[in-house]
Structure formats: structure tokens, C-alpha cells
């Protein structure tokens, strides 16, 4: 295969669309401009808030050698590069949780071996960049079609678990606040837990605002899209209600960019890298390869999800060229003393989704673009405003946030940042089939029918229940194994991206020995196939799915208390529920019609 063939192909395919990426959608009128503006603001919050959270985490891990200024600068600079030079402008890049974890390992190694951390991490990025460059020239992106839901679901849940773990660690550390002691330290921890609970509860409630009955659709959409960011402001304001000690609760400490460690010496990392010993430079090869493998997997998956079929993206992809560009970004970040970036989830697909509008038929038969898609029924009439403008605007806003946002950030309690990690963990669970299958496997057999009473995945009726259990158990065991390696093996934990990448050949060559092709197609399909509510498999309708009982037999009755719980409307009024038969429904409505007449 010709070296660089994929890159050349991508450049030829995308070059003809470059001008239209800037002017095409903007020239379509007010509706398109409104959608682009809304997407720019939306994805800014979706990018900036995690960047701030990861910056606070990085600050803690590296003892202030890197922090919020670094993550916002990296997100903003590389975001502008992706918007202007990227092959797929819909792709959002930024600092992600895995790179924060890797940098924690790098810092510990550098400290233990008396190596200057930031210059040495620059060499790690150089080796990662070289590896990514080789992968791009070698057309490695041709193999991303081998990435299936099997590995993606495990990776997603590992990140969710690590989010939750970091949240718990951060909230526990609130009780060890070094500025106060005694009862004030305890109060700081307890008040931090209270603020965290309030933030998680309100943000989770806001994220479901689209399903509310109160308010109009525009207000509900704003609350759903920006609720987590709004709640940071609201709960931060509530934190000032506690009087008596100005240091409680603990708040973020973000220096002005002019006083930050990055502008003081970070931007001169290229000079400091020359002072690193040859042996230490060679030692940076291993973590560099680890980062390259992580980016190859994570960046490719993010790009795939940003242009998945249901978004109706029409312009061609550029996997090979974007892999080459991420190589350049990694080199630049390392030599500027910034953490490297890659395509991020869920921001990448959220960006594309926010640029989608639904088409409404006018009386004359023409199409008019209006409103963001909010339901599955609109999917067939989608149009995606593929543009570079929204990505560029949100990246510039991240840089602006770095320059002037520090005054606001210094008023935000650190407990809210740790609570945001829990919120991100919870938000990553819906749509993850591994999480769904775990719930099904551990559910009471008498309650499993509830999963079939709504739209449900095809595998629930097409795959034997014992095979569903086996497939889920394998994923859970692998998930726990990789998580254990990451958390409990010291510096060996830096290898976790290699184990995640190893899931791909495991899926391709090991699982087919234990599952049929049909079972794997249904359990691990790239596109989730769903069935409408109800039971469609005759075998399942007879209470058996193959040889195993998926649903309870008629003899497996619920307890009397469960029956009463389902049929009782309220224990205060003792009202009972009754489902009317078709004959009773017709009788009631005929009576009502007679009364009306």
C-alpha cells in the first residue's frame, strides 16, 4: 500500500469543500446563521467546563506545574487549528480524562527520578507525535472500521468509573483543607458535600428538561443544554450563604494568565528540552507510544461519532489527514508546555447534533429549515449545517475564557468541580449498551418484561438470554481488569490505553469462538437496531427465549406487597389504580359524549 495514500485521498476529497465550509451555510439565511450561533455557544460550554474541571484535576496531580490555564490554552489553540486546517471541522478536540491520568503517571515518574516534569513531558509529546505521524503515513486509519461497540462501551464505562473515582477523591480531600483546621476543616468537608449534592441533583434534573411539561420548548431546550453550566453559577452563589470564615468553603485558585506558570516559563519549554539527559529522552519513548495508541483509538472513534449516519453528514471524512494533524498538534502542545489534545467525547457528536435542523414542509411543497431536532421522528428530515465557523468561534471563546475568566473561576467552590465529575459520569451512562445489559442481567425475572414495553434493542428478542449474560460478563470482567491495572499497579497503570486497544483483536479473534456470527451481529452491531414496544419473537411471547427463561412463567407471581405497590396510587389517600378494558373504555366515552350532547 502506498505511503500517505490515505492522506492524499482525504485532501483531494475535502479541498473542494473548503470554501463552502466557511461560506456555504452562512449564505443560507437567518435560520442557518441562528443554528450556527446557537451551536457555537452550546459547544463552548460543553468544551470549556470539562477543560476547567480537568485543569483543576491536573493542577492537583502536578502540584501546580500545570492547571486550568494550560487546559484552556490547549483546547483553544488546537481548536482553532482544527477549525481552520482540519479535514473534518465538525470534530471537537480538547484535553480528555485519559491524558490527565497519563500525565499524573508522568509527573510521579519525573519526580521520583529528579527529571524536570514539563520539559520531559515535551519529549513524551515529541515521541507521540512521531508515532502518530508514522501511523498516518501508514494509512492506519483504514483499520478503524474494526473498532466496534464492544471496545467502545468498555472504554466509555472505564472513563465513567474514573470520573466517579476522581469525584469521590476530591470530595474526601475537602476534609483536609490546609487553610483551616479543626471544626472548620470538618465544616468545609460537610458543606462541600452539601454543595456537591445540590449541584448533581439540579444539573441532572436540568439535563432532562426537554421532557418537562412546564415551560415552552425553547426554555426547556436552554435548560437542558446549558443547565450544568448555569448550575455552577447558581450553586457558587449559594456557597456565599455560609458566614463566619472567608476561607470556607474552599474555592478554586486560578491565577491571571500573566502570572501563570505557563507564561512565566512554560512557553519556553523548547529551550528547556535541550537540557534533558539522553537517557531520559529515550525513556520518554514508551509513554509517547502509549499516548499515540490512545489518540489513534480515541481520536478515530470521536471522529466516527461526529459524522455518524443519523446526522445526515454529506461531506467526506478525513480520518487519515486528521490523524496527521493531531500529530502536529501533539508536537506543538508538547513544545509549548501544554497537555496534548485529541478528539473528545461526547463533545464531538454533540457539536454535530447541535448543527442539525429539521425540515418542515410548507404548504407550497418547499422545505424550510427551522429548529433543532428533538425527537426520533424528525430524523428522516434532517439537514446538518456543516461549517467551520462554530468550531472556530467556540475555540476563540475558550481562549477568551482563559484570559478574563479567572476572576469568576476564583469564586467557584472546588467541591462543585468534583461534583461535575460525578455529573459527567452519570451523563455518560445512557446509551451505553453494556450499562443497559448489566441492568437487564441483574433485574428480577418478573420485572424484565418492562424492558420490552418500550422501544428496545433487537438482541433482547433475537439472542438467547444465557448468551446475553456471557457477553455482558466478559465485558464487565475486562472493564474491571483494565480499571484495576490503571488504579493499583503504580507506573504500570500508564499502559491502560494499550489494554484498551487490545480489546479490538480480542473481539475479532476470540469472541467468534464462543458466539455465533448472528449473535455478535446483534450484540455488537455498529448501528443499534431497535424494535417497537411489545414482544415480537413468538418464542419469547411463549415466555422462553431459546432454552432459557427470559421472562417469568405465569407461576412466578409477585408478592402481595408488590401487587399492592403497583396498584396503589398514594398511601396518603389510599387510591387504587385500575386498567380499563376496551369495552369499559368505549362505554365511558359513549356516556361522556351523551353528556356533552
TrEMBL record:
Organism domain of life: Eukaryota
GO MF entry, a single one: solute:inorganic anion antiporter activity
Classification via InterPro entries: HCO3_transpt-like_TM_dom (IPR011531), HCO3_transpt_euk (IPR003020)
Topology in membrane: Multi-pass membrane protein
Domain Bicarbonate transporter-like transmembrane: 5-180, 191-526
Subcellular location: Membrane
GO cellular component, one term: plasma membrane
Primary location: membrane
Gene3D superfamilies reported in the protein's UniProt record: Helical hairpin bin
Name of the featured protein: Bicarbonate transporter
Protein species of origin: Chloropicon primus
Amino acid at each position: 500500500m502506498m505511503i500517505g495514500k490515505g492522506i492524499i485521498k482525504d485532501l483531494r476529497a475535502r479541498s473542494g469543500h473548503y470554501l463552502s465550509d466557511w461560506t456555504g451555510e452562512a449564505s443560507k439565511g437567518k435560520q442557518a446563521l441562528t443554528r450556527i450561533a446557537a451551536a457555537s455557544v452550546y459547544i463552548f460550554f460543553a468544551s470549556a467546563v470539562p477543560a476547567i474541571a480537568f485543569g483543576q484535576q491536573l493542577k492537583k496531580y502536578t502540584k501546580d506545574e500545570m492547571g486550568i490555564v494550560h487546559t484552556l490554552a490547549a483546547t483553544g489553540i488546537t481548536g482553532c487549528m482544527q477549525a481552520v486546517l482540519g479535514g473534518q471541522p465538525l470534530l471537537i478536540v480538547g484535553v480528555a480524562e485519559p491524558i490527565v491520568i497519563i500525565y499524573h503517571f508522568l509527573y510521579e515518574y519525573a519526580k521520583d527520578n529528579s527529571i524536570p516534569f514539563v520539559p520531559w513531558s515535551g519529549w513524551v509529546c515529541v515521541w507521540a507525535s512521531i508515532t502518530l505521524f508514522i501511523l498516518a503515513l501508514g494509512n492506519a486509519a483504514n483499520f478503524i472500521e474494526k473498532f466496534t461497540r464492544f471496545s467502545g462501551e468498555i472504554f466509555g464505562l472505564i472513563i465513567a468509573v474514573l470520573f466517579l473515582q476522581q469525584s469521590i477523591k476530591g470530595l474526601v480531600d475537602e476534609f483536609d483543607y490546609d487553610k483551616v483546621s479543626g471544626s472548620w476543616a470538618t465544616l468545609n468537608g460537610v458543606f462541600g458535600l452539601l454543595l456537591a449534592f445540590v449541584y448533581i441533583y439540579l444539573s441532572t434534573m436540568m439535563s432532562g428538561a426537554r421532557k418537562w411539561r412546564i415551560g415552552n420548548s425553547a426554555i426547556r431546550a436552554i435548560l437542558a443544554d446549558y443547565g450544568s453550566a448555569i448550575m455552577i453559577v447558581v450553586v457558587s452563589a449559594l456557597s456565599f450563604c455560609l458566614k463566619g470564615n472567608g476561607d470556607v468553603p474552599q474555592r478554586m485558585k486560578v491565577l491571571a494568565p500573566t502570572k501563570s506558570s505557563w507564561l512565566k516559563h512554560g512557553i519556553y519549554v523548547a529551550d528547556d528540552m535541550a537540557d534533558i539527559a539522553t537517557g531520559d529522552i529515550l525513556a520518554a519513548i514508551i509513554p509517547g507510544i502509549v499516548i499515540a495508541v490512545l489518540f489513534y483509538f480515541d481520536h478515530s472513534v470521536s471522529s466516527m461519532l461526529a459524522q455518524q449516519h443519523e446526522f445526515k453528514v454529506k461531506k467526506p471524512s478525513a480520518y487519515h489527514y486528521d490523524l496527521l494533524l493531531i500529530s502536529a498538534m501533539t508536537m506543538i502542545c508538547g513544545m509549548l508546555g501544554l497537555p496534548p489534545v485529541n478528539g473528545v467525547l461526547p463533545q464531538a457528536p454533540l457539536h454535530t447534533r447541535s448543527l442539525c435542523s429539521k425540515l418542515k414542509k410548507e404548504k407550497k411543497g418547499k422545505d424550510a429549515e427551522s429548529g433543532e431536532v428533538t425527537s426520533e421522528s424528525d430524523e428522516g428530515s434532517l439537514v446538518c449545517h456543516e461549517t467551520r465557523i462554530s468550531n472556530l468561534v467556540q475555540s476563540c471563546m475558550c481562549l477568551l475564557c482563559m484570559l478574563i475568566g479567572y476572576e469568576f473561576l476564583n469564586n467557584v467552590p472546588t467541591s462543585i468541580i468534583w461534583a461535575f465529575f460525578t455529573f459527567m459520569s452519570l451523563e455518560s451512562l445512557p446509551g451505553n449498551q453494556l450499562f443497559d445489559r448489566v441492568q437487564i442481567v441483574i433485574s428480577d425475572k418478573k420485572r424484565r418484561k418492562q424492558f420490552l414495553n418500550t422501544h428496545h434493542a433487537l438482541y433482547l428478542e433475537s439472542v438467547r438470554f444465557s448468551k446475553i449474560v456471557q457477553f455482558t460478563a466478559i465485558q464487565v470482567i475486562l472493564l474491571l481488569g483494565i480499571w484495576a491495572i490503571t488504579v493499583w499497579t503504580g507506573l504500570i497503570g500508564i499502559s491502560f490505553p494499550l489494554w484498551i486497544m487490545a480489546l479490538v483483536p480480542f473481539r475479532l479473534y476470540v469472541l467468534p469462538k464462543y458466539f455465533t456470527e448472528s449473535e455478535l451481529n446483534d450484540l455488537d452491531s455498529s448501528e443499534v437496531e431497535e424494535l417497537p414496544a411489545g414482544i415480537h419473537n413468538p418464542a419469547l411471547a411463549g415466555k422462553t427465549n431459546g432454552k432459557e427463561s427470559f421472562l417469568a412463567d405465569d407461576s412466578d407471581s409477585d408478592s402481595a406487597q408488590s401487587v399492592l405497590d403497583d396498584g396503589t396510587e398514594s398511601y396518603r389517600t389510599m387510591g387504587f389504580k385500575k386498567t380499563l378494558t376496551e369495552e369499559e373504555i368505549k362505554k365511558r366515552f359513549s356516556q361522556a359524549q351523551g353528556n356533552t350532547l
